Amino acid sequence: MRLFAIVGLVVLALCPVRPLSAAERQIGVFGDSLGDGVWSGLYALLKKQPDDRLFRYSKVGAGLTRPDFPAWLAELPKSLEVDRITVAVVMVGANDLQSVRDDNRRGFLFGTPGWKQVYQARIQRMLDEFSARGVRVVWLGLPIMRKDESNQGSQVLNEVFAATLKGPNVTFLPLIEDFKGEDGAFATHLPDAGGRQRQVRIDDGVHFTHAGYEMIAARVLEVLR
Would you kindly state where each structural domain of the chain is located, as residue ranges? Predict the structure, then answer.
């Protein structure tokens, strides 16, 4: 991955770059396994839209509290520049309900004020990279989860997202209400646009089926329109 990024930068330096038309969007999807699913949903919906190009930067097991976050952040500007990303879609959090260490190796328990400060700063560092390149950002919130403990953790993350993801080129898209059943609780099946019941969540109570990810992708495209 690092070698490909370096080669891409050399090619861009040696070859004239065709300017993007107003209709073209270079969409990069960032995040963890949830983000990876959103990428698959967008891929399915964008196959017949030739003006849009989709790039996959999501990584199963990734997260803003993970020890490898600095390396992930270091790759971000290279990816944005080599592929000339104009829109960033981000969904992360499945692996973030845990303690974190700041840049000085000081540890903070999940949900404490210190933890929130570190997490918010990491979101902001990503936003700064996007902003420096004029990239529009659609950041997805976490949905309702099956387990109460996961729901409580997701609420903490959603609150940090809502407080941080602000600005003229940034959209925070909450999903907390989108995947509830009629009783307001976690639902495995929901009606699609045609009213047919579809399974949208898998057994772990966190991730989605392909139909569920397509529903999220449709919400993202609504925002981009």
Answer: 24-178+210-224
**Which tokens sit at 1?**
């991955």
What is the CB-side half-sphere exposure of residue 173 using CA atoms within 13 A? Answer: 20
For residue 71, give the 3-state DSSP assignment.
helix
CA end-to-end span of the chain, whole Å?
32
Q: What is the pLDDT of residue 164?
A: 97
Instruction: Return mean pLDDT, the chain.
Output: 90
Q: Which helix (H) or strand (E) holds 157?
A: helix 148-164
For range 90-104, the mean pLDDT: 95
Sequence-separated (6 or more) residues with CB below 8 Å from residue 108: 99, 100, 101, 102, 114, 115, 117, 118
* Fold classification of 24-178+210-224 (topology level): Rossmann fold (3.40.50)
CA distance 225 to 222: 5
Q: Hey, CA dihedral for 188, 192, 195, 199, is it positive or negative?
A: negative
pLDDT confidence bin for 23, thresholds 50/70/90: low
- Phi and psi for 195 in degrees, rounded to 5? 90, 0
Per-residue pLDDT reduced to its tens digit, 49-84: 888 999 999 999 999 999 999 999 999 999 999 999
C-alpha–C-alpha distance, residues 11 and 16, integer Å:
9
